[in-house]
Amino acid sequence: MKTSEWDATDVTIIDLLDRALDKGVLLWGELVLSIADVDLVYVGLKAMLCSVDTADRMREVAWKNLVDSQQS
Amino acid sequence: MGVLYIYAIVDQPDGDLPDIRGIGDAAISGLHVGDLLAIVSTVEGDSVPFSRTNLLCHERVIEALMRGRAVLPTRFGTTTEHAERIAKALETNGAGFRANLDRVRGRVEIALRVGWKPEADEPITRPRAADVADGRSYMQALLAQTQRSRQRRDTAEALAAKLTPGLAELADAVVEKILPTPQLLLKAAYLVRHAHVAEIRRRITALRTEYPDLAFLATGPWPAYSFVAEGNVA
Amino acid sequence: MSFQIAEPALNTNDGDVDSKLICASEDIAALTEELMTVRASTPNRVVLDPDKVEQGLAQLVLTVIELLRQLMERQAMHRVENGTIDDAAIERLGLAFMRLDTRMTELKQTFGLRDEDLNIDLGPLGKLL
């Protein structure tokens, strides 16, 4: 994919996305496991886990935004 | 019932806040603990949906705060129901936050990614049990993979070592990762003072010309996201 | 596309994302692909889809198994390179790892997981594998 097909804004937004989601201050490191909107398990951890669904959704949103802006 | 959305931890708690609205056009305010200030706004519901708009809003509030202040940007989506939780985090980690504020004051983050195509251009893959006849062959295949990976890493490190010194010397702090993925030779972030930003931009652009076979992507200046995560978890 | 080397402001241009591209090569496909493997994080909530609870938990468990498998393989390679392991043991180890590989492939298929799924982001601890 060539640079000319990408808007400068899109590339930098994705870079921002990568930065703001992954880095920055982590104020608290606990974890809550939740099913069907019911918080079930509280876990005190210095780690974060990622929901497969959320990751997929975010990837789709980011991708869709790019596609939309390319078509405009 | 809303929750508090937290944008950043900043210094100068008695100073004015910038004239900017937060997510959902809500007003931003400060939660003052000692010599630290957490910048918050109230959002509807119990979390902030990810969207381009919200991400940009998060970023703009942080950058507006950077006028005249040291700023530790939080991770996008940090919310809590209780202000006391924020206050507690600021008290518990006060020393760490203050140290990080000193580290980033007057500085910005410059981000660099360098892509490559290793000459072998054959992906280094794990052997599959189905593909080999016996245990010894599997181990041989595994060993070959290990050795090729090691060679590729050595090549990557040597190449990165040619790219980075001119950039690292302009920075007060550096985060560098060699081969975070097979196609990415280098992923780096540089914490740079205002006075050095123009020069680091020039040098990165010059590298792109000097290494036409590598792919460069550089962005910035950003708030110091990559330099504030350590030492801030209770 | 033009790259302006404007006089940079300390305050990062007030969130004007458009101006933040310093340089970009023509062929940035690989770079942007990597950018696209974004890992989301709601800072403190792992939401398990009620219909996919097993898959979510399987993902956690299999990632740990995968981590241990790779650690063991690495240690075995170390021993092979150092010559501190005889041929018979190499054959036995190889067979054991082959069985493990077959089993992992089956388990991944059972739960609809790809290789990439077993690489959970542990935030400050970084990617496992």
Write the layout of secondary structure elements.
The complex is a heterotrimer of chains A (72), B (234) and C (129).
Chain A: H1 8-22, E1 30-35, E2 38-44, H2 52-71
Antiparallel strand pairs in A: 1-2
Chain B: E1 3-10, E2 29-33, E3 36-43, H1 52-65, E4 71-73, E5 79-80, H2 83-92, H3 94-104, E6 107-115, H4 135-163, H5 165-168, E7 171-181, E8 184-193, H6 194-210, E9 215-222
Antiparallel strand pairs in B: 1-3, 1-4, 1-5, 2-3, 6-8, 6-9, 7-8
Chain C: E1 21-24, H1 29-36, E2 45-48, H2 53-82, H3 87-110
Descriptive account of the structure:
In chain A, 49% of the residues lie in helices and 18% in strands. Chain A is of the alpha+beta class and 72 residues long. Chain A is elongated, with a radius of gyration of 16 Å. The two termini of chain A are 18 Å apart. Chain B has 234 residues and is an alpha+beta fold. Chain B has helices spanning 52-65, 83-92, 94-104, 135-163, 165-168, 194-210, and strands at residues 3-10, 29-33, 36-43, 71-73, 79-80, 107-115, 171-181, 184-193, 215-222. In chain B, the strands form two sheets. In chain B, strands 1, 2, 3, 4 and 5 form a five-stranded antiparallel β-sheet that branches. Chain B has a four-stranded antiparallel β-sheet with strand order 7-8-6-9, covered by helices on one side. Chain B is globular. Chain C is flat and about 65 Å long. Chain C is built from three helices and two strands; from the N terminus they run βαβαα. Chain C is mostly helical and 129 residues long. Chain C has a domain at 50-125. At the A-C interface, helix 1, strand 1 and helix 2 of A face helix 1, strand 2 and helix 2 of C. Strand 9 (215-222) of chain B pairs antiparallel with strand 1 (21-24) of chain C.
Name the average pLDDT of chain A. 57
Largest beta sheet of chain A: what is the strand line-up? 1-2
Principal-axes shape call of chain C: flat
**Structural class by SSE content of chain C:** mainly alpha
Determine the N-to-C terminus distance of chain A.
Answer: 18 Å
- Class by SSE composition of chain A: alpha+beta
Index terms:
heterotrimer; A: about 70 residues; alpha+beta; two-stranded antiparallel sheet; 2 strands; elongated; C: about 130 residues; mainly alpha; disordered N terminus; disordered C terminus
Short characterization:
The complex is a heterotrimer of chains A (72), B (234) and C (129). Chain B is α+β, with helices and mostly antiparallel strands.
